[in-house]
Amino acid sequence: MNKTLIALTVAAASISSVATAAEVYSDETSSLAIGGRFEARGVMKENDQGSNKVTDKSRVRINVAGKTDITDSLYGIGFWEGEYTSSGSSDDKGDVNNRHLNAGIGGDFGKVVYGKTDGSLGMITDFTDIMAYHGNEAGNKVAAADRAGDNLAYTGSFDLGGNNLTLKANYVFDDGKGSEGLDDGYSVGAIYALDMGLAFGAGYGEQDTATNSAFNGETQKQTFGAISYTVGDFYFAGLYQDARHTEENSDKQRGYEFAASYTMDKTVFIATYNFREDRSNDVDLNDSIAIDATHYFNSNFRTYASYKFNLLDSDKVGKANASDEFVLGARYDF
């Protein structure tokens, strides 16, 4: 893997648990691996009444990945991941959802899967979405470009003389349910990573909407651009997005995020700045500075602390929406 992408993955506090998955079955042609995480998270912020409230945001994820060789150059794959989240209340009733449920084929050309899987813009927002909890406020994505069901997706990675090109494209079909007034949509993205530590990313997504929805049949459109640079133990990245009709009563939006990380032995320090505005109504939607520190005891266990300085005006958005936020967490990957 290109060292730019390695640094991005190491710096992120949300390294996929697939990387530590344990193989539980294998024969000459097939294998099955199980992985996941247990993550305890306590979030403290001020409510509209001016009191500090601690909310339990703990969660557990379990994933199962299968692969079987069909020919020397073709293989079949399947992947499922579910998540159970704490309710944060004494009734102990949390939520369960399927994050991923897909299958497909792969080879030298890349891989094609269908089901519930990631869209194409997530790899672009990953340039700056590297914090343990906060960040990515400027990286909101239309439904077809995010994780979605009824999703046909292609991913390919190609070595170009020491540099690396990653391509991704997906199409989400209209399920006929009129979910949130959204119809068909698609997204495409590309990352070009140079071996000297510089990487560029760009992506575009569209989502059709129903005429009887809050979006009045307008097509949601979104463009992302990103750049990163890794030098030694430092990582720097920037993200920019321009969007149309991605929220109710908002024709134009613009946002950007800047991220920096420093790795010192087993501890990673990260800072980000996020800003997103509704240009149609001249309203700031997000404006914050966040810092966190994550200590990796080993490849399976980490703890972290994260603080967000909220810069929004409480007179305009309310005290709770403009409140700072502090998070403590511990995570075990398997």
TrEMBL record:
Porin domain segment(s): 7-310
Membrane disposition: Multi-pass membrane protein
Taxonomic superkingdom: Bacteria
Annotated compartments: Cell outer membrane
A GO cellular-component term linked to this record: cell outer membrane
Source organism of this protein record: Photobacterium ganghwense
Principal location: membrane
Single GO MF annotation: porin activity
Record protein name field: Membrane protein
Position of the signal peptide: 1-21
UniProtKB keywords: Membrane, Signal
